Amino acid sequence: MSIDSEILRALRGAGATGVGGAELAKQLGVSRAAIWAHIEELRSAGYEIEASPHHGYKLFSVPDRLHADDLLSRIAPVDVIGRDIKVFQETTSTNDIIDRLARDGAQEGVVVFAESQTQGRGRLGRNWISPSGKGVWFSVLLRPALRPQAFTQLTISAATSLARAIREQLDIQCEIKWPNDVLIRGKKVAGILSEVNAEPDVLKYAIVGAGINANLDAVDFPPELLSISTSLKIELGEWVDRANLAAATLRHLDRAYEWIRNHHFDSIVSEWETWCSTLGRIVTIDVGGRELSGRAESLDENGALLLRNEHGQLERIIGGDVTLQK
Ligand code: BTN
């Protein structure tokens, strides 16, 4: 962790009591002057930190801006996901940045956030609107020892982690629509775009991109999306702390990835199933222009959906656009 992360972590831990400059300097193995310089830097980034001779430093408020050191200070320690975090003010798509990092040999677990994306991508070639400072838009680089056909495990784990973070942080009910949509009251609040670089039998790397509509207002959505999309702010009627939500999501993603690495994907499936609005329902799935209908029965060991068609046969679906019928 960087000095800024360590300072923020110590300030958060100290709460209203505050923490003295000398104590901080000792804890972090740097001089008091260095602590002061870092505190000044954090202040200029919008962190309100009080310094008093009696109580030392106290953290009063944090800016509504994603900050790599702050996110690191909230999640550490993690095993893989989030051990390196980068925040961009604007990118085309965070998936693009991760793809570039992957090709340059970056270690798995690096996470890229952007305050805004000019070419945010959704599944099936759709756009993903990403207005500045209003969402949690990020991508993760993974190099899992999975066969390419098992990559749906990553999407299922990501959807489960997002749903878990939203419920836990905001105390609001949400559900998952297979494979990757997180819905509140039937409207989409978050989605995942997983992309892989693979050879027939080898998954070289995977990019898991996630978008959570945190503080978007109705005017931020194109009118045609308003009946199917929403944001946490719209649903809760109040502003959402994006950094808290982002940190919780990374922590859950890291834990889910540990389960995958330890061959416990079945534990994630159980959680996914309890929150899934698709299972047991009659659905129509558009798979690359081909329409399939039937009852969504379960997930297989790779996260593919098993659909019982009208002839009683099970079809295995790895991707598509689901419409719930009844
Ligand atoms: C979907 O539900 O269609 C997937 C949406 C995925 C959006 C996220 S935002 C961060 C990452 N970068 C992108 O361009 N897309 C994903």
Global shape: elongated
The biggest sheet amounts to: 7 strands, mixed
End-to-end distance: 50 Å
Low-pLDDT stretches: none
Q: What letter string, H or E per element, gives the SSE order? A: HHHEEHEHEEHEEEEHHHEEEEE
Describe the protein.
This protein has 326 residues and is an alpha+beta fold. The protein contains 9 helices and 14 strands. The strands form 3 sheets. A 7-stranded mixed β-sheet has the order 3-4-5-9-8-7-6, with helices on both faces. A 5-stranded antiparallel β-sheet has the order 13-12-11-10-14, with no helix packed on it. β12 and β13 (314-317) form a beta hairpin. The protein is elongated. The termini are far apart. The relative contact order is 0.11. The model has no long low-confidence stretch (mean pLDDT 95). Bound molecules: biotin. Residues 93-95, 117, 120-123, 126, 128, 137-139, 180-181, 191-193, 209-211 line the site of biotin.
Topology:
Elements: H1 3-14, H2 21-28, H3 32-44, E1 48-52, E2 56-61, H4 68-75, E3 84-91, H5 94-103, E4 110-117, E5 136-142, H6 152-170, E6 175-177, E7 181-184, E8 187-199, E9 202-212, H7 232-236, H8 242-261, H9 265-275, E10 282-287, E11 290-299, E12 305-308, E13 314-317, E14 321-324
Parallel strand pairs: 3-4
Antiparallel strand pairs: 1-2, 4-5, 5-9, 6-7, 7-8, 8-9, 10-11, 10-14, 11-12, 12-13
Helix pairs in contact: 1-4, 2-3, 4-8, 6-8, 6-9
Biotin (BTN) binds at residues 93-95, 117, 120-123, 126, 128, 137-139, 180-181, 191-193, 209-211.
